Amino acid sequence: MTAYKKNTLLAIRWIVGLLFIFSGLIKANDPLGLSYKMQEFFEAWNWYFFNDYTLAFSLIMNVFEVLAGVAVIIGWRMKLFSWLLLLLIVFFSFLTGYALFSGKIKTCGCFGDCLPLSPAQSFTKDLILFALILVLFINRKAIYSSVRSITAITLLALCVLSISGLQAYVMKYLPVVDCLPYKKGNNILKEMQPPPNAIQDSVVMIFKYRKNGKVLEYTMENLPADLDSSYEFIDRTDKLVRKGNATPPIADFALFTLNETDTTDTLLHSNNEYVMLFAKDFSTFNKWYNDDFKSIFRELQQKNIPLFIVTADKQNAEKVLNAIPGIQILLCDATVIKTAARVNATYFVMNGANIISKFSYVDAYKFL
To answer: Beta partners for 329?
Structure first.
């Protein structure tokens, strides 16, 4: 092998390896986010039976990406890992291509929420990666490990343990780096506004008429000059001509009382302090309803600071009211809660629309 070819393969190994390590690490910071993105794909294909397994898929995928990235860089077992990477990038390219050409998936989740890529960007990235991995695959027999076997196995084992530990930690204590619009320091009302210089959707009105047994379509600009009673009006629809980017980071945040009274504006436009405990459902009720919660609730009552339990589980909310006298329940969409609070349950310390602090119920003692 010439020195040029050797150096080229080494450079490609580092590029591919670092990309996979970065991709795995950034998604390991929020494995639930990747599992929700997987559910979005499965639901688009009506494969709902996979939804119960997406978290396991996510955890395994993140570990494997980092593992594969390290293995490629050190050149360990390239005959095996070149096959695995080739199959993986073909699969990724299919997903990003589907997102791009179907239009059903807005973002692919390749780099999580911290570095959102459009479907076009994700597909382009995967095509470039595919070409690089194909070069490694073709030359896999010419690549040898730069470290001893025992060293490689030890290094890869440490990768598995560290990434698994990171994922276990963030699922219990919230992501180390919060890249969501509900992160500490954000103002929910500002996040509900479209981005600066956003472009609105371009929509044209289509009018349908029937004349002489034929259905004809016209826009407002080209309505027929002889439009009269001989034209039978059928329908008017709006046709999207160009998709804009005016979707705000937070698009559907709303809070309702059990009596279905919308209290969103009242809370967010107030200048008052309050605490929200986001609990999508009450499956973990026995975990967060502990001495720390009772101490927080008692302290807030003494300071006349409201504490709201925000949930999507209206059916069981009444039971909680009976279990915790004086508590206030607010209802919110389950998807919103899953986005705002990766841990079930998560405390939000608020002042109006400002998120002052945010922590898992496991860290509730920090509030005291």
So the answer is: 309
